[in-house]
C-alpha cells in the first residue's frame, strides 16, 4: 500500500468532467485506489462517489493505492490531479 497527500487544483472543484477522467484512470490500473477526504473513505471507481464529496479547489485529500501496480497508479493519478484532470488550472493561483 502506498499513499500520498494531494491538493485539488481545479478552480471549479471535482465536478463531473474531472471526476470522469479520474475514474477512467483509476480503472486502467490493476490495484485498488481510494481517497480519504475529511475523515471519509471514498471510492475512486465511481463518478457519483467522487462528485458527492464536494471537493473544492485547495482541498487536500489522501490518495491510497494498494495492489499489483500501486506505485504506477500513485504516480499517474498524482500527475493527472496536479495537471488539472483535463481542466485548465491557473498555476499562479495555488
TrEMBL record:
GO terms for biological process: phosphoenolpyruvate-dependent sugar phosphotransferase system. Keywords: Cytoplasm, Phosphotransferase system. It comes from the Bacteria. Residues 1-88 form the HPr domain. Its main location: cytoplasm. GO terms for cellular component: cytoplasm. Coiled coil: none annotated. It is found in: Cytoplasm. PANTHER family: PHOSPHOCARRIER PROTEIN HPR, PHOSPHOCARRIER PROTEIN NPR. This is Phosphocarrier protein. It comes from [Clostridium] aminophilum.
Amino acid at each position: 500500500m502506498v499513499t500520498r497527500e494531494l491538493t485539488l487544483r481545479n478552480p471549479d472543484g471535482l465536478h463531473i468532467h474531472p471526476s470522469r477522467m479520474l475514474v477512467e484512470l483509476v480503472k486502467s490500473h490493476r490495484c485498488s485506489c481510494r481517497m480519504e477526504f475529511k475523515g471519509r473513505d471514498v471510492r475512486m471507481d465511481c463518478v457519483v462517489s467522487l462528485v458527492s464529496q464536494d471537493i473544492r479547489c485547495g482541498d487536500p485529500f489522501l490518495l491510497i493505492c494498494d495492489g499489483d501496480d500501486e506505485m504506477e497508479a500513485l504516480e499517474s493519478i498524482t500527475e493527472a490531479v496536479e495537471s488539472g484532470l483535463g481542466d485548465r488550472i491557473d498555476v499562479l493561483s495555488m
